[in-house]
Amino acid sequence: MIGGSKPVVVGIADMKMVNGDGKVITYALGSCIGICLYDPKLKLAALVHIMLPLNMEAGRKNPLKYADTGIRETLKAMQAKGALKSRITAKCAGGAKMFEVSGKGSLGNIGQRNIESVHTILKMEGIHLVAEDVGGGVARTLTFDAATGMATVQSYGKPVKTI
Fold first, then answer.
1. Which domains does the chain have, with CATH numbers?
2. What is the pTM of this model?
3. DSSP letter at 93?
4. For 114-130, how does the pLDDT look when each residue is reduced to its tens digit (9 = 90+)?
5. Residues noted as catalytic
6. In terms of Cα–Cα distance, which of 80, 65, 76 is closest to 33?
């Protein structure tokens, strides 16, 4: 875990945890979703940047790439640091429809499928989703502050939004 004022960067299909006065940030949330999980008592925050709704990859090479396994892996990591599932809340951003896909192919709207999967997994895990900025057609940058529990979302050409 890392603290300090400079945000810790979370890459695609990645997760980082911070506590105290630490901040995490992830960029380029198009159809991907950034999920901030937070235990307010410990001021422990984790941010996971998922790409796809479900892990159907043989061998599960990177569980953080998927909503189902990424959220569960993040919760396990937080619990290993003393977080209680009953206290953890979630905020998320992303899930945009970045491309028009013609026809009725299986790809469909990945962003929307990611949103639905994140909602389902959080509900199954008993985690309360307190705020989100999802959908639409623009990429987002998501920052989360462990000291305050506040998330900010920046989209190109739009004012910063606090969620």
1. 8-162 (3.30.1330.200)
2. 0.90
3. E
4. 999 999 999 999 999 99
5. 32
6. 65
